[in-house]
Structures are given as structure tokens and as C-alpha cells.
């Protein structure tokens, strides 16, 4: 039994006891040694300020005049839960491009303090939890905070947006719906009032953001998912069809365990290859991911997507044929 579990059990025993509880009984119920019982009693009394009274001969109990007012303070987690929470916190800090570091610093300090208490003074090697961001874009922390505030306060947001595809800058007024962390980068799903439609924006392309007083228009979750999450990729839109990709037997060992889309369909073929089907609207992102597998992937259907892949491969090959 871990120390935190013993403290909880000890608290329950003493809270329910009408008469002093002997050390022998505590040893049996807590499944620990006499020395551990005394250490836990001292921790409960001196550190948690519990109204423990008694001695080793007569036994221990809570002072009847104080017992009703005492509760275990703070957040109590097992070591495993704390380690998991610390790992999740490290993931948020490091995969968010550092934008959440300052906001989560107090939480990290609190977690580390609780871990130190559990470890009995032994240092917890936080650096052993390693998160390696991949192709993370630079993100303006001030802009991120404004966007997040608008999302959570349910207020409209205005900002300048420079589209990555055209490099054109426009002023947008939106009702923010949700923040999405996708492939190490942040996106904003929002109702665009100027275009009267749902849109997704890369937060790293947002500038001069300002929260407005007007309340945000709320779009139902099922409509958000239908318009923005029903097809492959972050800028998906309603699906226009299904793509069928066949992977080599070697690549199948990886692809079969990968999540490409919530509605994906996959099966192993008799020769060991793997067939994957996903709904798509804009094929650009899907093509990039298929190209990642090189000769181990082949787009079988639809013909238009297959031809686009052929054109991309021909263009790439031409770069190596010059000179």
C-alpha cells in the first residue's frame, strides 16, 4: 500500500473510531510496520494538522471536539496518477511551442512538490519525460492568449489573417467555436461572419487579435464535426468522396496501427498488403501523407486523386533530372 493510500486509510479509521485504536490494529489494517504507523501518524498530525491524540500504549484517535471540523486538505493523488499528470503537463508545455509554459508553471511546481512528498525527499527526474515537437510553427503567445480568451469567454473575435497559400492579409470577425491542437500546431474553428460560414484558421497566422464585447454565435457540435471534421485533414470540409490507398506488406505493420480518420476503414489483403479507405474533401493534405510512404503506398481510387499523386511524383522526379 502506498503512503498516500495509507494516509487515506488511517484518516478513515481514526474518523470512524469512537475509542482509541491500538498500534497493532493499525499495523494489521494498513499492512505496514510499527515504525511506519508512527511515521504516518506524525505526518497526519504535524504536517496535515490532524487532531490526533493518544499514545502507543492506549492507542490513537481524533480529538472528539475537533474531528468534525477536520478534512484532508488539497488534491490527493497516487504516485502513478501524479506521474501521469506530470507527463501530460510536460506534453502540453513542450508540444505547444512553449506558449503554455508560463500558464502551467504553477501547476508543474505543485505537482513536483507533491511528488517530492511521495518520494520522501528523493528527487524526481522530470527530464526523463521527453517530448520532441515535430515541425512546430512559431506561435505568438499574446495572440494565442487573446484567441483562447475569446473561445472560453464565448465572445466574438477580430484579427488580421495572412493566408499561408496566398500570403494575402484580410481582416476577419468571427465567433470562435473551439481551439484544436493538431500535429503540434494550434488551429481555431470559428464562424466567419463576413463569409457567413465555418472556417478553420492557423493560430500562428493570426495577428492584431482583439476580443469584442459581442457574444459569440454558438454552432452545435454535430454541425462543427460535419463541416470541419468529417473529411481527412484539418482544413477538410464536407467529404466529396473516399480515397483508397494500398500499402506494401512492410508499411502495413505501421499503417494498420495508425489513426488517420475517425471513419477510416482498413483491412489486410491476402498478400499481406494493407488497404486503407478515408473520406476526403481537399486532397492536398492526404496526398502529402501518402507521399510520406514513397514507393510503399499507392492511391488506387479515385482516379482524380491518383492522377494528382502521379503529377506530384513526376514533378519531384524532374527536380532530380535537371543538369
From TrEMBL:
InterPro entries attached to this UniProt entry: CBASS_pafABC_assoc_protein, HTH_11, WCX_dom, WH-like_DNA-bd_sf, WH_DNA-bd_sf, WYL_dom
Domain WYL: 143-211
Residue ranges occupied by any Helix-turn-helix type domain in the UniProt entry: 6-60
Chain ranges of the WCX domain: 241-314
Protein name per Swiss-Prot or TrEMBL: Transcriptional regulator
Amino acid at each position: 500500500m502506498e503512503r498516500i493510500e495509507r494516509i487515506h486509510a488511517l484518516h478513515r479509521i481514526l474518523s470512524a473510531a469512537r475509542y482509541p485504536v491500538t498500534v497493532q490494529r493499525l499495523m494489521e489494517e494498513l499492512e505496514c510496520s510499527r515504525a511506519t504507523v508512527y511515521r504516518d501518524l506524525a505526518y497526519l498530525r504535524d504536517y496535515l494538522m490532524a487532531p490526533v491524540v493518544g499514545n502507543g500504549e492506549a492507542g490513537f484517535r481524533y480529538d472528539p471536539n475537533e474531528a468534525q471540523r477536520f478534512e484532508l486538505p488539497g488534491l490527493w493523488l497516487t504516485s502513478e496518477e501524479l506521474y501521469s499528470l506530470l507527463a501530460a503537463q510536460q506534453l502540453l508545455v513542450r508540444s505547444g511551442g512553449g506558449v503554455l509554459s508560463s500558464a502551467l508553471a504553477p501547476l508543474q511546481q505543485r505537482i513536483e512538490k507533491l511528488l517530492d512528498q511521495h518520494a520522501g525527499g528523493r528527487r524526481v527526474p522530470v527530464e526523463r519525460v521527453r517530448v520532441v515537437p515535430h515541425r512546430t510553427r512559431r506561435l505568438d503567445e499574446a495572440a494565442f492568449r487573446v484567441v483562447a480568451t475569446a473561445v472560453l469567454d464565448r465572445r466574438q473575435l477580430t484579427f488580421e489573417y495572412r493566408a499561408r497559400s496566398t500570403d494575402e492579409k484580410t481582416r476577419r470577425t468571427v465567433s470562435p467555436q473551439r481551439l484544436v491542437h493538431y500535429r503540434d500546431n494550434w488551429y481555431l474553428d470559428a464562424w466567419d461572419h463576413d463569409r457567413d460560414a465555418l472556417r478553420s484558421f492557423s493560430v500562428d497566422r493570426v495577428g492584431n487579435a482583439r476580443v469584442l464585447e459581442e457574444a459569440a454565435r454558438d454552432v452545435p457540435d454535430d454541425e462543427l464535426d460535419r463541416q470541419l471534421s468529417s473529411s481527412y485533414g484539418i482544413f477538410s470540409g464536407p467529404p466529396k468522396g473516399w480515397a483508397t490507398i494500398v500499402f506494401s506488406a512492410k508499411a502495413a505493420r505501421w499503417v494498420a496501427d495508425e489513426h488517420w480518420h475517425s471513419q477510416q476503414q482498413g483491412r489486410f489483403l491476402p498478400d499481406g498488403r494493407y488497404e486503407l479507405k478515408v473520406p476526403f474533401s481537399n486532397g492536398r493534405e492526404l496526398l502529402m501523407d501518402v507521399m510520406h510512404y514513397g514507393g510503399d503506398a499507392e492511391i488506387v481510387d479515385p482516379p482524380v486523386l491518383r492522377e494528382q499523386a502521379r503529377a506530384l511524383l513526376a514533378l519531384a522526379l524532374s527536380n532530380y533530372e535537371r543538369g
